[in-house]
Each structure stands twice: as C-alpha cells, then as structure tokens.
C-alpha cells in the first residue's frame, strides 16, 4: 500500500472514530447505530465494517485512543518545570475531572461500564500506570529535596488508597459527589508531611 493510500485510510478511520466518539458521548452506546455513524461521516456502512466489525470494536479503538490522549496529557504534566508537589496536584486534578465526567454524563457512564466488560485488562493497566506516575512524581520530590520525608514506594500506595473515595464509579446518594477542592486539601496534608525534614536514622 502506498503512503498516500495509507494516509487516506488513516484519515477515514479517524473520521469514523470521531463520529463514534461524539455519538457515544451524546447518546450512549445502545442508542448509537452504525448507520448513524455512516450518515455522520458520509461513509458507507460496509466500509465502516471493514475498519470496525461491530460496535465493540469501535469502543475498544476509541478507549485505546482516549487512554493514549490521557497518557500524553499526564506525561506533559511530568515534564512541567514546576515542583513535584505542583505536578502531583495537576496530575490528580486531571484524573479527578476525567472521572467526574464519566460519572456525571450518563452516556459516558455507559461507556465506562462497557470498558469494564470488554477491556478489564485496561482497567488493571490504568491502576498500575497511576501508581507508576505517583511514584515518579514522589521520587522527583525526594531527589530534588522538595519532599525530603517522602518514601515513594510506600507513600504512593498510601496516597492512592487515601484518595479512592474521590474517584467513585457513582456518586454517593447521601454524601453527594466528591469535591475537587476537598481532594486538593487531602493532597496538601500529605505534601505538608513530606516537606518536614527526614527523621535522622537511629544509631
């Protein structure tokens, strides 16, 4: 296949994914048909099936693309010329807002359920990636001396579990939705602890 044909194929695939993303985000998965995506893109249904044999394939491709975009955003956070604690706040705020969108938008909540059904391994990979990002940020804080008391391996796990209540699958009917400012206060509590001088080792 020539580079020109490859480019056209990639462009058509991106067009289909874009239309699917908009349809899924607005109407949900069940209410979206391949015929509607074909109409939105002005691409024949048969051609769409050549790229994606069913809606599940579309969901997998879209989620993979979305995760890559989120990964790129998080990597950009890690590259910011700011202190580790600021990176930590930015990183967790990005995740908080992404999870909130999943909860608050009914169609997106349906997509999240589909991901757990179709791609359980991606959920596990995402959790592992979050631990990795947290460790990287905390390691930087220790190395630069901005967080002298931090223990990256143990503290990244403690922080993760301490913040789990801010990333629920559905909002608590009694407590209501978690608030970003409250999450940031919890992070500030940890940061204040890690800023304390490292205890001197016992003889």
Please give a quick description of this structure:
This protein has helices spanning 3-27, 34-41, 45-51, 55-78, 84-104, 106-118, 120-144, 152-162, 180-195.
What does this structure look like?
- This protein is 74% helix and 0% strand.
- With 203 residues, it is an all-alpha fold.
- It has a domain at 68-97 and 118-195: Tetracycline Repressor, domain 2, CATH 1.10.357.
- The radius of gyration is 21 Å and the shape is elongated.
- The termini are far apart.
Helix-strand layout with pairing:
Layout: H1 3-27, H2 34-41, H3 45-51, H4 55-78, H5 84-104, H6 106-118, H7 120-144, H8 152-162, H9 180-195
Classify the secondary structure makeup into a structural class.
mainly alpha
Low-confidence stretches: none
Helix/strand order, N-terminal first: HHHHHHHHH
What's the CATH architecture of the domain at 68-97 and 118-195?
A: Orthogonal Bundle
The main sheet comes to: none
Q: Average pLDDT value?
A: 86
Strand composition percent = under 5%
**Number of DSSP-assigned strands:** 0
Relative helix content: over 70%
Q: Just give the CATH class of the domain at 68-97 and 118-195.
A: Mainly Alpha
Categorize the overall geometry. Answer: elongated
What is the rounded distance between the termini? 69 Å
CATH topology of the domain at 68-97 and 118-195: Tetracycline Repressor, domain 2
Rg, nearest Å: 21 Å
Individual helix count = 9
